[in-house]
C-alpha cells in the first residue's frame, strides 16, 4: 500500500490501531471506510490511495506517526518543558534513533535505485 515515498503495511496499520486502542469498527468509522476494508488492509490486501490516506489521516489525528515503511509510533509531546529530565532524555534518544533509522532507510533506498538504474 503506497503512501507518499514509502509503503504503509498491514502490520503498521495493526500496530497503529493497537497503539490507539481502537477496535476495527472504531477506526473504520473515523476513516469513513468499512470494517471489512480495515480487516483486509491489515491482512496485507492492496488498497487504493484514497483509502490509505483516509486511514493514515485518522491515525495521525489520534497522534500516530508512520515512519518509513516499517515503523509506527505515538507522536511525542510538543511541549517537553513540563517533562521530567529523565523523560525528556528518553524522548530525545528516541528522536535520535528514529532519525538515524530514517536516514539509513533513505540511504538504502537510494543505493537500490542507483543499482537498478531507476
Element-level helix/strand string: EEHHHHEEH
DSSP E strands, number: 4
What strand line-up does the widest sheet have?
1-2
Tell me the structural class.
Answer: mainly alpha
Percent of residues in beta strands: 5-15%
Mean pLDDT over the full residue set: 80
Low-confidence stretches: 2-6
Q: How does the major sheet shape up?
A: 2 strands, antiparallel
CATH level 1 class label of the largest domain:
Mainly Alpha
User: How many helices does DSSP assign?
Assistant: 5
Could you characterize the architecture of this molecule?
The chain is mainly α. The chain has 2 domains: 1-74, 434 Repressor (Amino-terminal Domain), CATH 1.10.260; 76-118. Helices cover 61% and strands 10% of the residues. The chain contains 5 helices and 4 strands. Strands 1-2 form a two-stranded antiparallel sheet. It has a two-stranded antiparallel ribbon with strand order 3-4. A hairpin with a 2-residue loop joins strand 1 (2-3) and strand 2 (6-7). The longest helix has 32 residues, at 85-116.
Amino acid at each position: 500500500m503506497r503512501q507518499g515515498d514509502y509503503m504503509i503495511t498491514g502490520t503498521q496499520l495493526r500496530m497503529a490501531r493497537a497503539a490507539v486502542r481502537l477496535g476495527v469498527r472504531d477506526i473504520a468509522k473515523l476513516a469513513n471506510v468499512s470494517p471489512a476494508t480495515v480487516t483486509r488492509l491489515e491482512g496485507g490486501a492492496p488498497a487504493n490511495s484514497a483509502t490509505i490516506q483516509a486511514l493514515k489521516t485518522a491515525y495521525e489525528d489520534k497522534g500516530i506517526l508512520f515512519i518509513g515503511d516499517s515503523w509506527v509510533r505515538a507522536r511525542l509531546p510538543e511541549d517537553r518543558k513540563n517533562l521530567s529530565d529523565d523523560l525528556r532524555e528518553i524522548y530525545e534518544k528516541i528522536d535520535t534513533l528514529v532519525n538515524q533509522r530514517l536516514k539509513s532507510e533513505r540511504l538504502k533506498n537510494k543505493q537500490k535505485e542507483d543499482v537498478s538504474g531507476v
